[in-house]
Design goal:
Helix content is 55%, strand content 13%. The protein has 209 residues and is α/β, with parallel strands linked by helices. It has a five-stranded parallel β-sheet with strand order 2-3-1-4-5, sandwiched between helices. The radius of gyration is 16 Å and the shape is globular. The structure holds adenosine-5'-diphosphate and thymidine-5'-diphosphate (TYD). The site of adenosine-5'-diphosphate has 14 residues, from α1, α6 and α8.
């Protein structure tokens, strides 16, 4: 699982930060420019991973320990990589993914527990692929939590950990954007959708050359 003819872009950030909105805008913009693009998400993005998703995003917040979550998210990611991401990259397509391993690094490795090394070791053994470009959308946790819950999807298990958890996540993502600055771009997500999309597109165009 190493060949990479396409372009792999991930979106990261706290719950309700605008990742899905921006993934969709970027997908539509690149398709309009003639690129072959698939938009996907985690947990999910393949039949098996979508089944695992339903176990992870709903139900009681204490349903799984952080260690069990790492295994479930990684199992879902392996299926997603095998069935969706790698075939598309081998085909030369652009893959735009709403969340990927950085979410496990920060949700399970920093905010739920101090397990960052475990996440990284398992990632190295089972997944190993990193995105080419990652956009970390930075928003105000109070506002994002309200926005996220207002969607009423019922997929609120992680929102149920509360505001302090979202603040802790934000700190984790800010640190990650510094530590992995070769591929991570911090985007101010407190602006209107169009301005955010423009910042992201500028970076993508610059990367493609
Ligand atoms: P995420 O995928 O990060 O959870 P969404 O893209 O679903 O976030 O956005 C969460 C909510 O906030 C949605 O109702 C969406 O319409 C709204 N939203 C997204 N971007 C913005 C923005 N820049 N300003 C105001 N509201 C936004
Ligand atoms: P998502 O549907 O993207 O949530 P939201 O739209 O609220 O941002 O993702 C579902 C939840 O799963 C989200 O709360 C973050 C969490 N998650 C992890 O804890 N670890 C992971 O590795 C991934 C991919 C997601």
């Amino acid at each position: 699982m190493t060949s990479n003819k396409g372009l792999f872009i991930s979106f990261e950030g706290i719950d309700g930060s605008g990742k899905s909105t921006q993934s969709k805008i970027l997908t539509n913009t690149l398709i309009a420019a003639g690129k072959s693009v698939i938009q996907t998400r985690e947990p999910g993005g393949s039949d098996g991973a979508e089944l695992i998703r339903s176990l992870l995003v709903s139900g009681d917040k204490d349903r799984w320990s952080p260690e069990t979550e790492i295994l479930l998210f990684t199992a879902a990611r392996r299926d997603h990589l095998e069935k969706t991401i790698q075939p598309a990259l081998d085909n030369g397509q652009v893959v735009i993914c709403d969340r990927y391993v950085d979410s496990t690094r920060i949700y399970q490795g920093v905010a739920r527990a101090d397990l960052r090394d475990t996440v990284d070791e398992l990632h190295k053994i089972i997944i190993s692929k990193e995105p080419d470009l990652t956009f970390i959308i930075d928003t105000n946790p109070e506002k994002s939590l309200v926005r996220g819950l207002a969607r009423g999807t019922g997929e609120d298990r992680f929102e149920d950990f509360g505001l302090e958890f979202q603040k802790h996540l934000r700190e984790g993502f800010l640190k990650l954007s510094n530590d992995a600055s070769n591929r991570c771009h911090l985007i101010d997500g407190m602006r209107n959708r169009e301005d955010i999309a423009e910042s992201i597109l500028t970076i993508v165009i610059d990367y493609i050359g």
